[in-house]
Amino acid sequence: MTSPILLSRFDALLFDLDGVVYVGPDAVPHAAEAIRAARQAGVACGYITNNASRSAQAVADHLVDLGIEATAADVITSPQAAVSVLPDFVPAGSRVLVIGGAGIDDALVAGGYVPVHSRDDGPAAVMQGFSPDLTWRDLAEATFAVRSGLPWIATNPDLTFPAPGGIAPGNGALVRLVAETVGRGPDAVAGKPEPPLLRAAIARLESERPLIVGDRLDTDIAAGARIGIPSLLVLTGVSSLGELLGAPRGERPDHVGPDLRILAEEYPEVVATSQGVSCRRSWAGIVDGDLRVELGGDPWDGVRAACAAAWSAADAGDAVRVEGAHRILEKAVG
Ligand SMILES: [Mg+2]
Predict the structure, then answer these.
(1) pLDDT of the residue at 49
(2) Cα separations (Å) of 324 from 210, 252, 300?
(3) Residue in 11, 18, 74, 133 annotated catalytic
(4) Distance set, CA 47 to CA 61, 117, 162, 263 (Å)
(5) Where do the structural domains in the chain lie, given as residue ranges?
(6) 39: closest CA among 65, 3, 63?
(7) pTM for this one?
(8) pLDDT of 16-29, one tens digit each?
(9) Is 298 one of the annotated active-site residues of the chain?
(10) CA of residue 7 to ligand 1 center, whole Å
């Protein structure tokens, strides 16, 4: 008896991009092939990005360069998600002060709003997103506008992002700067882990059974949990095996795999009993406060069992030492 492959349980896959599909300019190994296979199997593929400095078209062009068929319509950006929440604050057609890059202007125009760049143009709301060209004057303009009482929407909350010279301040850091100055945070944040970006993607793909696929527990997986949809964590990006074993409630993926090839594999059941947790031929449990694993077959089954055992002990309030199991698993899957 064969069970169906993982992707067949879903009608749409929502891919985070950096660390899942590409890292900087380069493809993540096996990603393009896995996405092509999913599309061939008739599963819709959408690409979601908190990055507010690139347009949907630029992202689609990048995907095509990597061998993934995509158009701008397949890409959902945080400025687009930010525009999707504007009706909660101001009527369609309103002027919106843009603090950020051209991607925000484009998303506003597409959504039926009027982007403006000065308070003199009478904006009804402020939208803040990342641009490397933002200056003190722009941030001051945002500050004055927010303090005057305008609703303030941030495209994404990322404090940092990897830049050629190292880890650089992201939009979240600049939003915090304004927040510190005005004494309050934004009225809405669109990007992960907040819900609007995922909701916009699900609406765009008209999906009833979506899967969010990401590399970060605190953004991708948390966003899925926030809106109650299943998630897959791949270990090709930011979050590590150690972080996965220690993931707090609300940041725990439903599925785990080394990379996107897992989408085309049978995904095993994880079964908890009073004796511990089994996953196919692997077992994990807590013995004298230590997480123990016994590996059999695919070592990722050991990871799946170990996560379930560690998480359930943490939820019961038990202190668990995971270091020994972590070393064994790291060696087995590395
Ligand atoms: Mg990522």
Answers:
(1) 93
(2) 35, 21, 16
(3) 18
(4) 12, 29, 19, 16
(5) 6-50+194-264, 79-189, 270-333
(6) 63
(7) 0.93
(8) 999 999 998 899 99
(9) no
(10) 20
Most confident of 45-59, 151-165, 285-299: 285-299
Structure tokens at 106: 């484009």
Q: If pLDDT is split at 50, 70 and 90, which confidence band does 1 have?
A: very low
Two tokens, residue 327: 């070393």
Q: For 254-312, how does the pLDDT look when each residue is reduced to its tens digit (9 = 90+)?
A: 999 999 999 999 999 999 999 999 999 999 999 999 999 999 999 999 999 999 999 99
Q: How far apart are CA 182 and CA 178, in angstroms?
A: 6
SS3 category, 125: strand
Catalytic position from the list 11, 16, 259, 301: 16
109-134 exposure pattern, b = at least 16 Cβ within 10 A, e = fewer: eebebebbeeeeeebbbbbbbbbeeb
* Residue 280 CA: distances (Å) to CA of 229, 267, 311: 25, 10, 19
Q: What CATH number has the domain spanning 79-189?
A: 3.40.50.1000
* CA 311 to ligand 1 center in whole angstroms: 23
What distance in angstroms lies between residue 15's CA and the mean position of ligand 1's atoms?
9
Query: Is 88 a known active-site residue?
Result: no
Q: List, for residues 80-123, the tens digit of each pLDDT value.
A: 999 999 999 999 999 999 999 888 999 999 999 999 999 999 99
Q: What is the distance in A from the centroid of ligand 1 to the CA of 272?
A: 30
User: Residue type at 317?
Assistant: G
Judge whether 6-50+194-264 and 79-189 match in fold.
Answer: yes
Asked if 119 contacts 97 with a C-beta cutoff of 8 angstroms, the reply is yes
* CATH number of the domain located at residue range(s) 6-50+194-264 in this protein: 3.40.50.1000
Ligand 1 mean position, distance from CA 175 (Å)? 20
Cα–ligand 1 centroid distance for 215 (angstroms): 5
Spacing, Cα 49 to ligand 1 middle (Å): 8
